[in-house]
Task: structure prediction
Amino acid sequence: MAKEIQVTREGLEKLRKELEELKGPERLRIADTIREAKAHGDLKENAAYHEAKLNQTRLESRIAELEKAVQLAHIVERPDVTSGVAGMGSKVELLDEEFDDQFVVTIVGSFEADAGKMLISISSPLGEALLGRSVGDLVDVVAPQGNNRYKILGVQ
Result:
């Protein structure tokens, strides 16, 4: 049996929108590019055609991945914000004790993670360390870049 994929309600909606975009307009765009490249003749030495076919393969792979993710998606509701306990969907304000730096992360499912947007996967070292923790807790995170210690300043 396939393992379910934990996502927030918002995350599932994003996956569905991306899937719709890829199956509709993006598929049509790539098909047009392939048709145009074929019109240039000899396919053996047609770099534009080979690039378009490669893009088509990547697109179909991503579509298959998204379809599987949507099929296996299990929506995890945000915890009660009054509980003050970090869980899936929580925004957690942290203090990096070493650098005296404050920042906020949102705990999300793996498919939603985007470190640049501070969307931290529940399966990442930081995400795992934060789950079930409360304001005031000190959290030690063992990560590939080294060990870090954070203090939880807030949970929403």
In short: The chain has a mean pLDDT of 92. The first strand starts at residue 5 and ends at 7.
